Amino acid sequence: MLKGIRCETAKCPVEKKQRNLAPGMHGWRRGRISEYGVRLREKQKVKRYYGLLERQFMRYFHQAERIKGNTGETLLQLLERRLDNVVYKLNFAPSRKAARQLIAHGHIYVNGRKVNISDYTAKIGDKITVKSSGKSLKKIKEQLGTNPNFTTQSWLQLAREKSEATVVALPTRDDIQIPVEEQLVVEFCSR
């Protein structure tokens, strides 16, 4: 309605046809991502999903390389068994960051012992409980009550009324729900 005279030409800044281009003089030159870029994106996706730094991620990768079997699936299995991820998957915390904070503040016990290290790897048969203080139990009960239809994954067994869980099996690739091609991550990290 109140456009200037310039908007009647092709140089109109309001109705430019090049709105979907990247900013800058060479925005129209966006090429396709190289194979290196594709693999890097997949690795970064996994790191950000689990909230890891580069050194932590590479430690898990080297650990997965030493274990017999498919390295990609083993890597995802190790990441899935981190205590902060297990606490999140049990719906004790609304996010992985909140789960890390619960662990760091001493609210989570594994096999009756306080664990305040969020990268602790849960094993089959580990019993994860909440500290018996009223404050800890109240916090977890509130979180469990926010989503009454929540179902745990098949490799975890949750007792809602006691606020405790047991790791009954190792997670399979079907249990790991992140949309990532782990083979590309392995190819990137093995170079």
Low-pLDDT windows of residues: none
The order of strands across the largest sheet is 2-1-3-5-4
- Strand portion, in percent? 5-15%
Order of helices and strands: HHHHHEEEHEEH
- The CATH topology of the domain at 35-167 corresponds to Structural Genomics Hypothetical 15.5 Kd Protein In mrcA-pckA Intergenic Region, Chain A
Shape, principal axes of CA atoms? extended
Helix share, percent: 25-40%
| Gyration radius over CA | 23 Å
Which structural class fits the helix and strand makeup? alpha+beta
Mean pLDDT: 88
Tell me the number of helical segments per DSSP (H or I, 4 or more residues long).
Answer: 7
Specify the CATH architecture of the domain at 35-167: Roll
Quickly describe the structure:
With 191 residues, the protein is of the alpha+beta class.
What does this structure look like?
The protein is of the alpha+beta class and 191 residues long. It has a domain of 133 residues: Structural Genomics Hypothetical 15.5 Kd Protein In mrcA-pckA Intergenic Region, Chain A (Roll). 40% of the residues lie in helices and 9% in strands. It has a five-stranded antiparallel beta sheet with strand order 2-1-3-5-4. Strand 4 and strand 5 form a beta hairpin. The radius of gyration is 23 Å and the shape is extended. The model has no long low-confidence stretch (mean pLDDT 88).
